[in-house]
């Protein structure tokens, strides 16, 4: 079977054959226009990764890189079965949900002297220890704890056996190439192999692998081992929040039939046609938004290729989705229980 290995090529292929999801070209252009003035602000910059998010590491150290690897290895499936009841983690007087609950639990464990970011620890962690470290402060546990246990043992073992127990060793092997680091991660860590079959072709989204490269770039502040000359070759990270915000911003459209299924709370399976179309069209849509943004600046004689890329657009849209939960409550997000996003 033909393998469309790059997420961008996969997205192009899917968008060209999608039935229930479509990119609204005019809508995408309008989103780019609305972002034009924001693109030079902190919310749209590499420094925002630390400045705007108190749970992210402050340092640009090997320990911080291993924090990122642990978190992105577990960066999946936080949506709760019922919106009212969800997993919450209280940390330093604040309550965190979703992805941030994961980060809060990691920082809580480190404060309690548990070496949760050390591969030698999580390679042999027991399920009970996972339940304890990632415990919720409500009755609702974090989803997929058994899968998180399995993924931790597997990734920790690979990191010990192939990279001396540190993800920084893997980063150094990439020789400042984002695409090479992406390939190293997908080839060595099975849980990052986020792929599907669409119209008899193998397509790839690599959501956690791409966000791992992006977060490594961010935590190392784009310098030294964290400098990637080809960082702009990454796509956005096809999770369940970006599609939701793109529909909210009218850059992406769902068919009536798909909208009905989403509103009924249908839980899709990994690889279902609807899921693949939603993720592929989201990537393609954001590629278009980036293109328009760069063209708008070019018309003003400004080359913004170092300031505007899919990574920074993604971070901006993801934070926007977080901050506009209320406004977006009528736009359903697609539900899949998986370890890929
Ligand atoms: N596309 C994209 N998806 C992202 C992230 C993040 C957090 N990362 C950055 C955010 C701030 C820091 O700068 C981190 O670097 C989590 N997710 C996904 O969202 C979902 C969780 O959502 P909710 O249930 O609402 O917490 C889940 O699929 C999770 O995998 C991102 O940035 N982009």
UniProtKB/TrEMBL annotation:
GO molecular function: hydrolase activity
EC number(s) reported in the record: 3.2.2.-
Catalytic reactions on record: queuosine 5'-phosphate + H2O = queuine + D-ribose 5-phosphate
Transmembrane segments: none
GO biological process, one term: tRNA modification
Family: Belongs to the QNG1 protein family.
Record function comment: Catalyzes the hydrolysis of queuosine 5'-phosphate, releasing the nucleobase queuine (q). Is required for salvage of queuine from exogenous queuosine (Q) that is imported and then converted to queuosine 5'-phosphate intracellularly.
Protein name: Queuosine 5'-phosphate N-glycosylase/hydrolase
Native species: Coturnix japonica
């Amino acid at each position: 079977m033909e393998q469309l290995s790059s997420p961008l090529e996969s997205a192009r292929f899917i968008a060209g054959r999608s039935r229930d999801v479509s990119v609204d070209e005019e809508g995408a252009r309008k989103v780019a226009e609305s972002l034009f003035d924001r693109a030079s602000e902190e919310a749209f910059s590499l420094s925002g990764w630390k400045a705007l998010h108190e749970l992210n590491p402050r340092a640009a150290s090997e320990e911080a890189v291993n924090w990122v690897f642990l978190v992105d290895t577990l960066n999946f499936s936080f949506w709760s079965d019922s919106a009212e009841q969800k997993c919450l983690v209280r940390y330093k007087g604040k309550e965190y949900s979703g992805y941030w609950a994961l980060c809060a639990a990691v920082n809580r464990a480190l404060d309690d002297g548990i070496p949760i970011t050390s591969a030698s620890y999580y390679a042999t962690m027991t399920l009970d220890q996972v339940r304890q470290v990632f415990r919720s402060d409500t009755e609702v546990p974090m989803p997929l704890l058994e899968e998180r246990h399995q993924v931790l043992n597997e990734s920790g073992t690979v990191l010990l056996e192939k990279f001396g127990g540190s993800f920084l060793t893997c980063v150094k092997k990439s020789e400042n190439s984002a695409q090479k680091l992406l390939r190293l991660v997908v080839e060595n860590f099975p849980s990052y192999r986020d792929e599907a079959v669409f119209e008899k072709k193998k397509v790839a989204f690599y959501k956690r692998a791409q966000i791992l490269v992006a977060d490594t770039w961010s935590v190392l502040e784009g310098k030294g081992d964290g400098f990637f000359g080809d960082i702009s070759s990454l796509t956005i990270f096809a999770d369940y929040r970006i599609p939701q915000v793109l529909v909210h911003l009218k850059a992406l459209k769902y068919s009536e039939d798909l909208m009905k299924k989403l509103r009924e709370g249908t839980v899709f399976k990994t690889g279902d046609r609807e899921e693949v179309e939603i993720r592929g069209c989201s990537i393609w849509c954001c590629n278009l938004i980036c293109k328009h943004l760069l063209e708008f600046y070019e018309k003003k004689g400004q080359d913004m290729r170092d300031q505007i890329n899919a990574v920074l657009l993604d971070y901006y849209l993801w934070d926007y989705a977080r901050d506009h939960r209320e406004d977006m409550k009528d736009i359903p997000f697609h539900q899949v229980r998986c370890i890929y996003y």
